[in-house]
Design brief:
Elements (H helix, E strand, L loop, with lengths): L2 H17 L9 H10 L5 H4 L5 H10 L11 H8 L1
Helix pairs in contact: 1-4
C-alpha cells in the first residue's frame, strides 16, 4: 500500500458521503474490479448536481485509475478541498 492507494480509498468514501451511493457497483466482484481498473463510475456531479464543483474535482482526482494522477499525499488532497 502507498499513500496513493489510501487516497483512492478516501476518494471512494467521499464519493459515497457526497452522493449516497457507491462509486463502483456491479453484479459481482469481477464487474466491480473492472470498473475500478478502468475508472468507470458516474461522476459525482452527475449523480447529484448539487455537489460543489471543487469537491467533485477532488473526488475524481482521488479515484483516478492511474495512481500517478491521484494526489501524492493526503496533505495535497486536504489543501485542494481547502
Amino acid at each position: 500500500m502507498t499513500p496513493r492507494s489510501d487516497i483512492f480509498s478516501l476518494g471512494a468514501m467521499l464519493y459515497e458521503l457526497a452522493t449516497g451511493a457507491l462509486p463502483f457497483d456491479g453484479e459481482n466482484d469481477y464487474d466491480v474490479m473492472d470498473q475500478i481498473i478502468h475508472g468507470r463510475y458516474v461522476p459525482p456531479e452527475e449523480r447529484d448536481p448539487r455537489i460543489d464543483a471543487n469537491l467533485a474535482a477532488v473526488i475524481r482526482q482521488a479515484l483516478a485509475p492511474d495512481p500517478e494522477r491521484r494526489f501524492a499525499r493526503c496533505e495535497a488532497m486536504a489543501a485542494a478541498l481547502g
